[in-house]
Each structure stands twice: as C-alpha cells, then as structure tokens.
Amino acid sequence: MGIVPLERALQLAADVDLDLVEVAPMARPPVCKLMDFGKFKYESALKAREARRNQQQTVIKEMKLRPKIDPHDYETKKGHVVRFLKAGDKVKVTIMFRGREQSRPELGYRLLRRLESEITDLGYVEAAPKQDGRNMIMVLAPHRAVKASAVAATASRGGPRDRAAEESAAPAGGEAPAAGETAAAGETGPTADTSGQ
What we know:
It is found in: Cytoplasm. Keywords: Cytoplasm, Initiation factor, Protein biosynthesis. The structure is a single chain. By secondary structure, the chain is α/β, with parallel strands linked by helices. The chain is built from six helices and eight strands, in the order E-H-E-E-H-E-H-E-H-E-E-H-H-E. The chain has two domains: about 5-55, Ubiquitin-like (UB roll); about 60-150, 2-Layer Sandwich (Translation Initiation Factor IF3). The chain has a four-stranded mixed sheet with strand order 1-8-3-2. A four-stranded mixed sheet has the order 4-5-7-6. The longest helix has 25 residues, at about 145-170.
C-alpha cells in the first residue's frame, strides 16, 4: 500500500474493521499491517503450543547395580530398564564397586554385557562401558522405532486434553484491541507503511 500518514492508516483500519499493528517499529518509516490482532495472537499461541508438543525432550534415567547382585534383583532392575527404553528414554546403567570389588572390574563389565544382550530388541549401547572411579558406566538408548512408538502413544493419550485446552484458549469477542490502540502504543512518527491486509 505504500507510505501513508498515520491518520490515513488508522482511517483505513477503521473502514475495514481491522487493527493497525506495528510489525517493524525500528524501520524508517515504521511498518504497520492491517490485521485482526486478537486472531493473530491466538494463532501465534497455537503455533507455539504445537512447537512445544512436537519438541522431543531427552530424558536420561539412571539404574544402579552392584557386581554381586542377586538374580531376582537383577531381573527387577532389568525390568525397569526395559520400561524406560519402551517409554523412549535413555538409561544410564551404573555398576558401583565397593572395597575389594574394585580389583575385579571384569565382574561389572560382564554384567553390563549381559544386560546389553538381553535388551537388544529395545535399545542399543550409546556409550560403551567405562570405568569412572569406583563406578562403571554404560548408556543405553532406545531404537528409533521404539522411540517413535513411545512418542505416538504419548500423543494419543494427550489428544483430547490438548484439544480442550486449545478451545479454552480461544479469545473472547471483546479481547481484540480497538483500531487505534495498537498504533498509538508504538507510534514513532507521523507516517506508517501499511504493507498488506
């Protein structure tokens, strides 16, 4: 539309029942746009919510074992590791050595290799076992297919609740500012460039 005086831009916005919104206040002359400001805020909030929902957060769970662990305790801990991997989380497995156990790191290494072989269908070793002081650490990560199914399951569980939240976030009829309010708040000069409707 080009460069027009501020009064003319406000009159144009009032004529089409839209708001005059300053989109680039630092430009010379300032750039303004004719739009429904309430609808614009609502759509930008929806986009931000969608971006947060699609964002993948990496969670690292930790499981601690001892080299002389009882078979039943080992199965319980392995069950926790399996549950974490199915949920799409990484697992840091730590073997804690005490006293004379520190002179036998092969016991911990063997235990970690056994765990690795038993969960190959769910995950893989992201960081190989390594000695770190009195502990031996290995990091397991879920396969892509397992992680994708966990993300899909989480999205399907939260579906109806998210739709209800989006509907409640819709702006009420009187929330949009009046035609002159937006431009007056950021007014920097007598002219405004209205570049679109």
